[in-house]
Amino acid sequence: MKTIRIMPCLDMKNGRVVKGVHFVDIRDAGDPVENAAYYEKEGADELAMLDIAATVENHKTRLEWVKAVSNVITIPLTVGGGINAAEDIELVLKAGATKVSMNSAAAKNPVLVREASERFGKDTVVIAIDARRNPVVPSGFELVVAGGTTPVGKDAVEWAKQCQDLGAGTILPTSMDGDGTLKGYDLEFTKAISDAVTLPVIASGGAGTLEHFYDGVVKGGADVLLAASVFHFRTFTVRQVKEYLKGRGIAVNL
């Protein structure tokens, strides 16, 4: 039985943790360093930090944010937003990240995925796949880039397979239809991705109840459960989620 990992996510804008609904209606969710330290203490297995405005505002990931957060944790840190080249990856890793998450840049230049994998190691490369429902593409899920603002006419599930072939180490699918809604992960989308690849899959977008986490594993096939709102606004602690999952027969590190 695989051991499921819990991954709080720090969505960053202007130096603060923020959280929105459907990638908009942003509200403040605290200081990133305080949140990071708290989540590690609570038993988080990994942490994500995504600069949600980087691509839209055309700036690089703020390295000072990465350094500040990495200095207070020992768990793996995945950093994304504004990473467009191998040089960006190198700087983010040197600043303290364990892995990098790419979305728009990888979709625009798939060769970057292979280059990153070969240069920094497969386990370093996380491909974030934001999608929305569109019956025109075969899987019914269309890839969306630039912080959820730009659909690209590409099938999101086929893109996940392509990323695996290019050397990605992890896939992080987020359904724009579910993001921030607290109505549960988009299990259909998560399952479509987990069925299509053999890589670890991170369920993301919409967790609002303890059962949603369980469903992410059992119905979505996820290996890692990412959440933001329920942790930032203290609806649940990481430990509560883990104890619930363990009580329902899911292997976790307590």
Shape: globular
Series of secondary-structure elements, N-terminal to C-terminal: EEEHEHHEHEHHEEEHEHEHEHH
- Uncertain spans, ≥5 residues at pLDDT below 50? none
When the domains are counted, the total is 1
The percent range for helix content is 25-40%
Q: Kindly name the structural category.
A: alpha/beta
- Identify the CATH class: Alpha Beta
Beta-sheet strand percentage? 25-35%
Number of helical stretches of at least 4 residues: 11
Radius of gyration: 16 Å
CATH T-level fold name: TIM Barrel
Name the CATH homologous superfamily: Aldolase class I
CATH architecture: Alpha-Beta Barrel
Major sheet:
12 strands, mixed
| Average of per-residue pLDDT values | 90
The total strand number stands at 12
Describe the protein in words.
- The protein is α/β, with parallel strands linked by helices and 254 residues long.
- It has a single domain (5-247), classed as TIM Barrel (Alpha-Beta Barrel), CATH 3.20.20.
- It has helices spanning 32-42, 54-57, 63-70, 86-94, 104-108, 111-120, 156-166, 187-196, 210-218, 229-232, 238-247; strands spanning 5-13, 16-21, 24-28, 47-51, 77-80, 99-102, 125-133, 141-145, 150-155, 170-175, 202-203, 224-227.
- Strands 1, 2, 3, 4, 5, 6, 7, 8, 9, 10, 11 and 12 form a 12-stranded mixed β-sheet that branches.
- The protein is globular.
- The two termini are 16 Å apart.
- The mean pLDDT is 90.
